[in-house]
Write a structure and sequence with these properties.
By secondary structure, this protein is mainly beta. The protein is 14% helix and 46% strand. Strands 3, 4, 7, 8, 14, 15, 20, 21, 22 and 23 form a ten-stranded mixed β-sheet that branches. It has a four-stranded antiparallel β-sheet with strand order 2-1-5-6, with no helix packed on it. About 4% of the residues have low confidence.
Length: 370
Amino acid sequence: MTLRAPSYRLEVGTLKKSKFTRQVFNTALIDNRLLSLSVTLNSGVSSDQLTISLDNSPVFMGLGAHISPPSQKAIKVSMGYDFNLLELGIFTDIDVTLQSSSAGETLNISATPNLMRDETSETHREITLGALIGKFADRYVLEVALDNALIPLGTTNIPLNQQWESALSYLSKIADYFDAVVKPIAGKLLFLKKGQGTAISGIAVPTVKLQAYDIISWHCDLSTGQEQNYGAVVARYFDYQNATEVEVEAKLNPVTGNVDITTSEDGTTTTPVGVASTTHRMPTLCKNKAEAEKLAASKLAELRRNQGPKLNLTLQGNPRITAEGSLQISGLHSEVSGGWLSSITWIVKSVTHTYSSGGYQTRLTAYQKL
């Protein structure tokens, strides 16, 4: 058996759109004093996080000037084995802190991607979704990574008023209407359908195959959400022509497994036959039928993901595992691995890659792909 040595690489440079320009950087100072290096990748708008902890012993008091890049710089992180390293992210918003205790002095670096924090109020005209995302990408010097199925969709039936909120907060509301995830990362602005097994690059990647011997420990919660098994979502809109409030219901078809959309003009809806479920009612009033249908279907998909089984894994470091990526596991319980004829696919919700003196480990949480 070939032994592989865990390894990492840190690069400092500048980031413009998705182009990273490396600058000269003395990594020996970090290599000699590294206590831990951790990268957490999250699905959705939750920020990814880079954390570096270094021994800042008095003999190395000049260390900070070498490893705390100015705010306009970027840190690119890769992990893997030997010389086979994969990029995990590029981080631009950097904070540096010093900490001292009886155990000694440490220097800690934490960083996140561009978070598009500045707040503004603006009304966006009705254009295609692709054009709207492109508008924000240009504003923050990012490259667009938009799901091809979403590019031609119009914005007629989504909120176009951005009211004193950050761009990321506003775009996350837009994403809710399309059951999508929006995220600025690695110089790109991602806008992708949830649960599709798409990497941070915005490109679909092969499912990661794991064996039982790859796993250090695991925990699967099979009871998640069973107390409220949502099989339908009801949204409402006001029909001005008939001066009445109408309900639109998105419900799970127990036979086909698809989502059916029904509208009851008298304001009542029916419970899905054959499904012991709870109906979730949206509190807000939509402005038209199309918006209500889109919102109900998106919310139902979200609830179904949240009420399914949840998996937690700790395994030997694997840099191919990323948030929103997919994985399959062989050799564990059938509720985790599946049966002989079909494997269970899991979608990663959050993953943390950690390199330290103890080696390289990956910890993740995942949900079953619908």
